[in-house]
TrEMBL record:
Disulfide bonds join 47-128, 80-85, 134-329, 214-241. Substrate binds at residue 177. This is Peroxidase. Removal of H(2)O(2), oxidation of toxic reductants, biosynthesis and degradation of lignin, suberization, auxin catabolism, response to environmental stresses such as wounding, pathogen attack and oxidative stress. These functions might be dependent on each isozyme/isoform in each plant tissue. Belongs to the peroxidase family. Ascorbate peroxidase subfamily. Belongs to the peroxidase family. Classical plant (class III) peroxidase subfamily. It comes from Deinandra increscens subsp. villosa. The active site is at 78 (proton acceptor). GO terms for cellular component: extracellular region. Its cofactor is Ca(2+); heme b.
Length: 359
């Protein structure tokens, strides 16, 4: 049975790779301005292989467990919505305060996602030196998570620097809309981040892959069932989460839980959205027609998703002299005891390369 399951997963992943090669959205298709300090070819001279390195490694990761794709995508969301796309969610806590990871919305982030980002940083820095930030690696990993799950491929503006601080727990809570939020609350909250209703609905489509813990949706089941939830769907959820304290998980898209597609919106039209924040998008007068348009036209959804992701990926970024490029994604350089020995290694490597050029 294990062999059969592994073979099936390999075939599914292979088919996703073949399908995803047909979907590409270039920077030419994205007309919004790019934040000063970022560019489409930022690492062309310093680390032109960075995107190949990231994608090659993630193909291996997803071949073993395609479920990690959703974890990496969510990590990018949670990084950007809280004090911008600066890699601060990756930081461990210090004497300056607790990590963003301890805040309730972040406690369910996949631990493996953090390990994958660090593995990618190690591979990239080994090839190019310390020239690519952890924040850029998170953005690239999210893009590849989407693409290698069957979604669109697209260019990512790069040049982010890593943040020197992490947000407080209150700031994290204030900036990550809860799954129990209604559409009006979410639209208002994300409008402050320059995201339009179309952006909000498109980004919500990231829920087409991944799983959720019972605690995120059991308020819709107990003590009374949410009348907007389809009865058979609700019955299935109650089997997974028989009480409001059950610690279990379930898929977020019942049609194609490991494929990045537009079936999430079909779920909403069938009243099978998992969270209040999902289902209410099909109730609100502003977002309902957007949901319907994405459900009927996957290409339209992909185009809107790419635009929204590129916009989100530039939120409050640090560039130029602001921030740093961490030698380890979970530790600020001045807190990293091994950082100075790392600098010595960099200088020695630079000297060797200079001598080689003189020969």
């Amino acid at each position: 049975m294990a062999s059969s399951s592994s073979t099936s997963m390999f075939l599914v992943f292979s088919s996703l790779l073949i399908f995803s090669t047909l979907l590409y959205v270039s920077e030419a298709d994205y007309s919004a301005p790019i934040v000063k300090g970022l560019s489409w070819d930022y690492h062309h001279k310093t680390c032109h292989k960075v995107e190949k390195i990231v994608r090659k490694h993630l193909k291996k990761v997803f071949k073993e467990d395609i479920g990690q794709a959703a974890g990496l995508l969510r990590l990018h969301f949670h990084d950007c919505f809280v004090q911008g796309c600066d890699g601060s969610v990756l930081l461990d806590g210090s004497h300056g305060g607790p990590s963003e990871q301890t805040a309730p919305p972040n406690q369910s982030l996949r631990k493996q996602a953090f390990s994958i980002i660090e593995d990618l940083r190690n591979l990239v820095h080994r090839e190019c030196g310390r020239v690519v930030s952890c924040a850029d690696i998170v953005a690239l990993a999210a893009r590849d998570a989407v693409h290698l799950s069957g979604g669109p491929n697209y260019d990512v503006p790069l040049g982010r620097k890593d943040g020197l601080s992490f947000a407080t727990q209150n700031a994290t809570l204030d900036n990550l809309p809860a799954p129990t939020s209604n559409a009006s609350t979410i639209l208002s909250a994300l409008a402050t981040k320059n995201l339009t209703p179309t952006d909000v609905v498109a980004l919500s489509g990231g829920h087409t892959i991944g799983v959720s813990h019972c605690s995120s949706f059991t308020p819709r089941l107990y003590p009374t069932q949410d009348p907007t939830m389809e009865k058979t769907f609700a019955h299935g959820l109650k089997e997974v989460c028989p009480t409001n304290t059950t610690n279990a998980t379930t898929i977020m898209d019942i049609y194609s839980p490991i494929k990045f597609d537009n079936k999430y919106y079909v779920d909403l039209m069938n009243r099978q959205g998992l969270f209040t924040s999902d289902q209410d998008l099909y109730t609100h007068e502003v977002t309902k027609p957007i949901v319907e348009s994405f459900a009927h036209d996957e290409k339209l959804f992909f185009e809107a998703f790419v635009k929204a992701m590129i916009k989100m990926g530039q939120m409050e970024v640090l560039t130029g002299e602001k921030g740093e490029i961490r030698a380890h994604c979970s530790i600020r350089n001045h807190d990293n005891k091994g950082y100075f020995s790392y600098l010595v290694e960099e200088e020695d490597q630079s000297d060797l390369e200079s001598r080689a050029e003189l020969r």
